[in-house]
Amino acid sequence: MGEQVNPFDEASSVADNPKTASIGSSVIPIVNRLQDIFAPLGGSFPKINLPQVAVIGSQSSGKSSVLEALVGRDFLPRGSDICTRRPLVLQLEHRPRRPNTDDDREWGEFLHLPEKRFYDFSAIRREIQAETEREAGTNKGVSDKQIRLKISSPNVLNITLVDLPGMTKVPVGDQPSDIEARIRTMIMSYIKHETCVILAVSPANSDLATSDALQMARAADPAGSRTIGVITKLDIMDRGTDARNFLLGRVIPLRLGYIGVVNRSQEDINQDWSIVEALNYEENFFHNHPVYHGLSDQCGIPQLANKLNKILEQHIRTVLPRLKAELNSQMVAVVKEIRTYGEDIESKAEQGAVLLNILTRFCKAFSHMLDGRSREMSTTELSGGARIHYIFESIFVKSLEEVDPCDGFTDKDIQTAIENATGPKDALFVPDEPFEVLIRRQIARLLDPSLQCLRFVYEELIKMSRACEATEMQRFPVLRRSVDEVMGKFLCDGVKPAERMIANIVEMEMDYINTSHPNFLSGSKAVELAMQHLKSTKKVLLQMGTNFGESRNYVEKSTMTERGLKSRAILAKSVANGYVLDQGSRPQLNNDKPPSSVDEFCARKKLVPPFTLGLWGWKEDDAVSRDVKRFLYQGRKCGDLLWVRVIPLAT
To answer: What one GO molecular function would you report for this record (predicted)?
Structure first.
């Protein structure tokens, strides 16, 4: 590689040389070269705003005529509708005349057609139209992608202009309904930068105080320090009116002032008036006009060209130090990034070694992140193996604990299952089949939390593979995408077998119910728990009976056999003249039938109201329960036990 030269060093030396007549001949072409370099990069490089002149105005305000007059040739599309539908970056390059040579010809060159020079300016117009239609269509569409055109001529000054689409109000053709807002946004994206000089074009035959171009220029440049006003069509103003006050800056003041010009009309263009003839007509108009005769330094295309050249030179001189510092900063960052990519790789052996090294580092980084040995360990969130451990120990366990083993069926379902398992006859013992049917249905509910845990682990592994990006891999984006695809496919291929394995484990648990497990509640354990529950219930009954404050003390215990506890036995107790009567299935007391009324119960016990009666298993349709309502005075409810105060009713 040859020695690299910083163009700003050259520009600075020229600007500091007092013998140089103008820095425009050197600095403006350098800025044009930088624009050509940055244009193909697009959004892949940090944007640097280079000095330029943006031409704005409403549709049919005369922008195209001004640009053609500055160039001295007809080369822009013409028409009554919108003509400029893409931003046209026009670089005017002054080429000194060389006597005794044929190098004085003017030519144009497009950035998208390098090394192809157009000496026929009508061909330049056709290429602009074709390139516009390729991007924006053929039916008045608008695009924000630039067309870059360089025109080299000994008859122009060094200027860089950006011809932007004219502002319009009503959409036509394929234009969207918000075409006005889109064009204004496009224009503002250029003129909002401090490095941009605004050339605001306004026609003199309309109200200049409400000019769209001046309004947008004021929004982007409130101080008016980088806005030049151009007033076109001065020759077709209403009789008795003139633009003198505007040219002098008395209506809308601009620090850079105004320039008045005369455009060719459409009739002049149809009659093939040349630019030279139009400039002669413009000169005679201003020279002979009684108002504009004394404003010769503010009227005419030549004055506009000289003013633009000087202002652009001065503007570049102002922003040059900051632009140089910004470019150097970007250059340092790019050089630093290039160094991280390593040296050039030419031979196949070197390429294979580098590839193997990159893949080895990737595998080690993935393994270290899984084992918790990563050098770039996060301190803000769990990642890698720690995250997977959290998924198993916290999220998965919590989801299993949220599964209620008794959810989904009631006591009625259990009773129905037992009855269905006994068939046409009564069973002496509870069969195993209903238990297994119900428990299998509950075990199957463990499948969804397990599959959810699998999905969480899969997502974390994908995240880990994307985080394990070696520095060298940034050099090869295609390799990066290929590694992502391979890792994603590898992990995705393991999801289906894992799902089948989880489903098989759940099915295995459903097929064999392990009743030998230490935590399994067997029949003897259930009887033991029932007896403990009965003892605790008796204790509560004694305490509640004492609280009623009766004087007598009598307890009748229910009988229990050695083989087990009688289900729903009658408990008739008197605690301080208090009694408990079980309202469930009532076995015989002393070989007698159960009492059918409270009177019969009182007669058997030789009780005289008032006394306290405890009803166990209260049922509204029970005979005794219905009869108790005649004596009910007050009561307390404790679980299935209802304590009532029995007193004789008044006759």
So the answer is: GTP binding
Containing 159, the helix (H) or strand (E) segment is: strand 159-163
Q: Does this model's pTM top 0.70?
A: no
- Please work out, in degrees rounded to the nearest 5, the angle formed at the alpha carbon of residue 512 by the alpha carbons of 510 and 513: 85
Go through the domains of the chain in sequence order and give each one's CATH number: 26-327 (3.40.50.300), 352-522 (1.20.120.1240)
pLDDT in tens, 90-109: 888 888 877 666 567 889 99
Neighbouring C-beta atoms of residue 302, cutoff 10 Å: 14
Q: Is the peptide bond before 431 cis (omega within 30 degrees of 0)?
A: no
Q: Would you state the structure tokens that stand for residue 518, as one six-digit string?
A: 């230490």
Q: Report the SS3 class of residue 625.
A: helix
Which amino acid type is present at position 299? C
Is the Cβ–Cβ distance between 275 and 295 less than 8 Å? no
Give per-residue pLDDT as tens, 380-423. Answer: 888 888 888 888 888 888 888 888 877 777 778 878 888 887 77
Residue type, 161: L
Closest Cα partner for 161 from 130, 201, 124, 121?
201
Residue 516 sits at the vertex; the CA angle it makes with 514 and 521, to the nearest 5 degrees, is 95
Query: Checking DSSP bridges between strand 573-574 and strand 554-555, what pairing results, if any?
Result: antiparallel
